[in-house]
Structures are given as C-alpha cells and as structure tokens.
Write a structure and sequence with these properties.
Length: about 375
C-alpha cells in the first residue's frame, strides 16, 4: 500500500542531496577510486575525530566490526561474552560465530542492559561484555566501567565491545558512543542513523595493536606496505571506497540530522505525553545525549494500535516481536528474561528521520490519540 507516512524514505533523502552524491560518484567511478583509497582514510579520520578515539577502521558492516573485535581479542571457544537479548540478532551472532558462548541478560526500562544484573552474570570464563546502545541511547557506562574495574582489580581482565550500531553521535557524560570500550562498533546500513548506499561499518579503538590487527583481518591479512606482505589469514570485510566517499559527504550534515531527530522526538513527547498509559522514550537523566535512531513507545493494545496506524496510512515497525532466545533453533542455554519478554509485547516504533515533516509527525500523533480516545 502507498503510505502517507513511511517508516523510512530513501527516495526523499536521495532527492534532497542527489547533486552532491552524483558529483562524488561520477568523480570516483570515472577515476577508478574503488578499493582502499583516500576516501577511506578521510572517513576513518573523520570517524575517529567525531567518536573521540585515536583510531577508526572502515569495515563492510556492523556485524564485521563486532565479529572482528572478538577475533582481534582472541575470544572464541570456551569463552563467554555477556550481552542482552533485546538487540538485533547480529550482536549475538557475532559472539556465536566467533565460537564463544553468548550469555544474555535482561534490560531496564530504557531498553538497555540492566547493570544491576551484570555482576551476577560474570563467571571466570567471561572475556568480554557487549553493551548495546539501543535506539540511539547509550548504556550506563559509569556503572559498567565500575564493574569491569572491580574484576580487573581482582585479576580478571574483561574487555568491553560496544555495539554502537544504533548510536553514532550519542553521548554519555559528554563522551561519544564507541569511545568507552576496547572497541566501538558502528553500522552504516542505509536505514541507520548515518547510512551509506549499501552495507558499511566501522570499528573505533584507542589501542594501536587492535587497530593494526583489524587492518590485517579486514583485508586478506595483507599489510599495506609497498611489498604487500602477508601477515596472517584474513577476511574480506573492508568498506567500499565509494561508500566511504558518500559517508564523508553525509558527515557534513550529521549534526543537523541529529538535531532534527531530537526535534521530532520532542514533538512526539509534547503531542503524546497526555495519552494515558503510553510510555514514551524520554528518561530524565542529564548524563545522556540521545540521538533517537528509533522512537520506540510502549503501548497498551499494541497490535491493535499498529493495525489502526496501518489503516491511517502510517507505517510502523515492531522490534522485536519475540526474544532472540525463543527461536526453536537457538543453540545456547538461556534464562527467560521477564523485562525483555514484556517489552516484546508492548513496543512499537513510530517514524522518525530528518526528512520527516512536522505535518507528518502531527498526523501520526493525532492518529495515536484517536486510537486511544
Ligand atoms: C544494525 C545492527 C547491527 C548489525 O549491523 P550491520 O551493518 O547490519 O551488520 C548490530 N547490532 C545492532 C544493535 C544493530 O542495530
């Protein structure tokens, strides 16, 4: 059906910036600047600067950033990595496919890792914690840092791999997502907060040894020296130069896009806060700077609300209908997670992106209000 308000709108985005995109594409394609050229180096410099780390490496996807983080840290069979169930399956897949065991814990009311549950999940086998900054809001990195330090003081080194795939630009205590952990992992899938025209990702770190390992792991184990020395087996997981060139163009607009997202979130808040029993994603705590990749509300009679909005021509999505551990093929042991299960029954994401107009937001607000009236 033709929606009046779409959940994402790639054509609208393209229309607005196409001259700039076409100029860059024409130039790079006509000169054959395709694999690991200047645009990648520029993109990495821009990304490190923006996130607040010494290094960044362009990769093929957010999954690659997570997976190669584990590979670079030699985490695999016999090791445990703690993360949440309430995330895109890719976070858990990266752990499983590295050969380690994912240990899933519950989340709090802001959809992020419940740090009070973290300590009890740590065992002598725990090698890393993967906090997921969901929907453009960071995890409580103070609490996480304190727990990690307590174990480090007792002689157990635990790495932190930040899944920041939904949180580029988000901050906690004025520090960027992806700058707290051993590594930070980003995705540039088209619908993400900063999207390229296909698949893309990045890894940030302050550790020169990890940065160097990622350089090898991402491209066939080849050192970028004049002799192209083979140093190890590697993957092919490098960001396309064309995508890097596009991302460099888009980065100029990023702050404005985030500001617009926050404006839309505020408009939803003003419009919807009078609706009884609707829980909105605003959490009073000045340590957080949220970028609202998603605007996720918790709604009574959620499935009926979705149908109502669909009838009104408003496209919404539900992430996620069920916990990841509930798939019948899920191969690891798990504890049922009550908050995660409750969230799966209540959440629905409303449209939010920079090109969305105030009229479309107001139309959506009115449709939600009508449903509950
Ligand atoms: C999108 C996403 C990923 C995976 O990123 P890809 O670029 O699609 O591989 C991982 N974790 C979270 C939380 C995501 O939203």
């Amino acid at each position: 059906m033709a929606y009046k308000v779409k959940f994402v709108d790639y054509p609208r985005h393209w229309e607005k910036y196409k001259e700039e995109f076409m100029t860059v594409l024409e130039d790079r394609l006509s000169r054959g600047e395709l694999v690991i050229r200047q645009d990648i180096l520029d993109f990495e410099k821009n990304t490190a600067e923006m996130v607040g780390t010494k290094y960044a490496k362009g990769l093929n996807s957010g999954f690659d950033a997570l997976h190669l983080s584990l590979r670079a840290l030699n985490i695999g069979p016999g090791d445990e990595v703690i993360t949440v169930d309430h995330t895109f399956l890719a976070s858990i897949a990266a752990i499983a496919l590295a050969g380690a065991k994912p240990v899933l814990i519950d989340v709090g009311n802001d959809f992020n890792m419940d740090m009070e549950l973290l300590t009890t999940a740590i065992t002598p086998k725990t090698k890393a914690i993967m906090p997921v900054h969901l929907n453009g809001r960071m995890c409580d990195m103070d609490a996480l840092g304190q727990i990690v330090k307590r174990f480090e003081d007792k002689g157990q080194k635990i790495y932190v791999i930040e899944d920041a795939a939904q949180a580029l630009g988000a901050k906690f205590n004025d520090k960027g997502a992806g700058s707290f952990g051993t590594t930070g992992c980003f995705s540039y899938y088209p619908a993400k907060i900063l999207g390229c025209f296909g698949e893309g990702g990045a890894l940030t770190t302050n550790d020169p040894i990890i940065d160097e390992k990622i350089l090898l792991l991402r491209y066939h184990g080849v050192l970028r020296d004049p002799d192209r020395t083979q140093k190890m087996f590697g993957y092919n997981a490098v960001l396309d130069n064309i995508q890097a060139a596009i991302l460099n163009v888009k980065l100029k607009y990023f702050d404005r896009w985030v500001a617009r997202r926050r404006e839309i979130a505020e408009r939803y808040r003003l419009g919807l806060s009078s609706v009884q029993n609707l829980k909105l994603p605003h959490f009073d705590d000045s340590r957080y700077f949220d970028v609202y990749w998603n605007y996720v509300i918790r709604a009574p009679r959620r499935d009926e609300l979705k149908q109502h909005l669909e009838k009104e021509g408003i496209e919404t999505i539900i992430k996620w209908l069920t916990p990841n551990y509930s798939y019948d093929w899920y191969p690891f042991e798990f504890q049922p997670l009550p908050v995660t299960e409750k969230i799966c029954r209540e959440v629905i994401s409303l449209p939010i992106y920079p090109e969305l107009s105030d009229e479309e937001v107001d139309f959506t607000i009115q449709a939600v209000k009508n449903f509950y009236a």
